[in-house]
Write a structure and sequence with these properties.
The complex is a heterotrimer of chains A (about 90), B (about 230) and C (about 150). With about 90 residues, chain A is an all-alpha fold. Chain A has four helices and no strands. Chain A has one domain.
Chain lengths: ~90, ~230, ~150
């Protein structure tokens, strides 16, 4: 098992942990960041699988634009932590 | 009860998929279509990036379908989120680092986006990636100064004209007797910037359309809805 | 890339699909359901690119020194390019619908959302809203206990 296999195994563990964290984290913003982490790890795998075009698209669209979309939507849904506390105080 | 049933079903589905895909020749695929395309792409289309020639020349209709899906999603988001309310005060502007950084980086990011779009037929990249970079530049400017929204009318004009340009370039191939979206003027000068005929033109149209669409979509999320 | 790496990548892709699917069915919050959908899509895209890989392959880009001899399959890469962009479009539309649902019903919890939507529909259609399954029976007789002996039907 050479160093490339080791890198692949570490990245697989990281991606699966990020996927579980997306489903299990209480904080919605943390779940959005974990989903961006999964996209980033998958784009590294695309580079290792000799697909640079797809890796560029996944990093830009999945991690970058998708993460931005989730953060903006979380702000509109009131899922940022500070605003949730203020809303609970008001209601 | 539902939780255990779902976990058993998900693990059964994962096992089924694993068994199915492990039976495939994973490191040595037969690649019947792939070999044919790889052998003929350089002479038929003339783009150095073979994935670009597959996306725009061999499977151009799929790219047109993808553009229509993005257009449907972006206009549906525009319909759902409603118009911006201009009487409400905008959010707080971003901090000093964000404003200064955006002032410096906005033209650079636009340039990188256009570079990626224009070199899509030579290096990895192309219309979609470059369009995302353009949209990211515009939305960074909105995040730094929340009151300074891009004009939705201008963005939809750019998007409409770019989409029409894509279809017009495809229809121009009909005028020469080929099928719709066949690349014209191909085969000369593999590897130069001006090569592969109408492929850079198609990717410029795709990049502008995707960039304008995503910028309009993202700025809808930062506005207050009129309802 | 050896055999072991490819099996590990296959396991990762299918694990992502399984985790995404489980999150989709078991999600309590609408936002988490959208997140689970995007995870499942990432897993499916990884699976497609994995199938097109060859040992000792190089990226499908022609350069002056390269031949077509060892390139990986370009067709799944083109398909996945389309799929990634479509995935983000679907995600944007789902989030916009979630924002409108929360503005209309005040919550993102799936059970509360379902109850409020159904009572809204019942009120608009003119029928009486259904009582919740968890509410006590009121004046209705309770159903017979499961393990009691029943009389034969004949």
């Amino acid at each position: 098992m050479d160093w490339l296999d080791l890198i692949v195994v570490v990245l697989v563990a990281l991606i699966l942990t990020g996927a579980m964290a997306t489903l299990l984290l209480e904080n919605m913003l943390g779940a959005a960041v974990a989903s961006a982490l999964v996209s980033l790890g998958v784009s590294v795998f695309f580079v290792l699988l000799r697909a640079p075009d797809v890796a560029l698209t996944e990093a830009a669209v999945g991690a970058g634009l998708g993460g931005l979309l989730l953060a903006l939507a979380a702000k509109r849904l009131g899922l940022w932590r500070i605003e949730v506390q203020q809303e609970e105080k008001q209601s | 009860m539902k939780r255990y049933g779902t976990l058993i079903f998900a693990s059964g589905l994962a096992f089924l998929l694993f068994v199915m895909f492990a039976a495939l020749p994973l490191g040595a695929p037969p690649m019947t279509v792939g070999h044919a395309i790889l052998d003929q792409a350089a002479s038929q289309v003339g783009a150095a990036n073979i994935v670009t020639s597959v996306v725009l020349a061999y499977r151009g209709i799929d790219t047109l379908g993808e553009l229509s899906i993005l257009f449907a999603a972006a206009s549906a988001v525009g319909l759902i989120m409603g118009h911006a309310r201009h009487d409400k005060p905008a959010g707080a502007p971003g901090g000093f680092i964000l404003r200064a950084g955006v002032d410096l980086l906005y033209p650079l990011i636009l340039m990188v986006g256009f570079y990626i779009i224009l070199h899509g037929h030579l290096t990895p990249g192309g219309g979609f990636q470059g369009g995302v970079a353009l949209a990211a530049a515009i939305i960074l400017a909105v995040l730094a100064r929340p009151g300074d929204l891009p004009s939705h009318a201008a963005l939809s004009w750019v998007e409409g004209l770019a989409g029409a340009g894509f279809i017009a370039t495809g229809l121009a191939a009909l005028a020469y007797g080929h099928a719709f979206l066949t690349p014209l003027l191909t085969g000369e000068r593999l590897g130069a910037l001006v090569s592969a005929g109408t492929l850079p033109v198609l990717y410029i149209a795709v990049g502008l359309k995707v960039g304008a669409e995503l910028a309009s979509l993202l700025s809808r999320f930062t506005e207050e809805a009129a309802q | 890339m050896s055999d072991f790496s490819l099996i590990a990548l296959l396991g990762c892709a299918i694990g992502l699909i399984g985790i995404g699917f489980a999150g989709l069915v078991l999600g309590r919050n609408l936002f988490r359901i959208v997140l689970a959908l995007s995870i499942a899509e990432a897993g499916a895209n990884l699976l497609l690119i994995l199938v097109g890989f060859r040992y000792g392959g190089i990226a499908p880009i022609l350069e002056p020194g390269r031949t077509v001899a060892n390139m990986v399959d370009p067709v799944p890469q083109a398909m996945v390019l389309t799929a990634i962009v479509i995935g983000v479009g679907v995600q944007a539309l789902a989030l916009a619908l979630a924002i409108r649902a929360r503005n209309a019903y005040g919550t993102l919890d799936m059970r509360l959302l379902r109850e409020r939507m159904e009572s809204d529909i019942d009120r608009a259609a003119g029928t009486t809203p259904d009582t919740s399954r968890q509410a006590p029976a009121g004046t209705r007789p309770l159903p017979p206990p499961l393990l009691a002996k029943r009389e034969p039907l004949s």
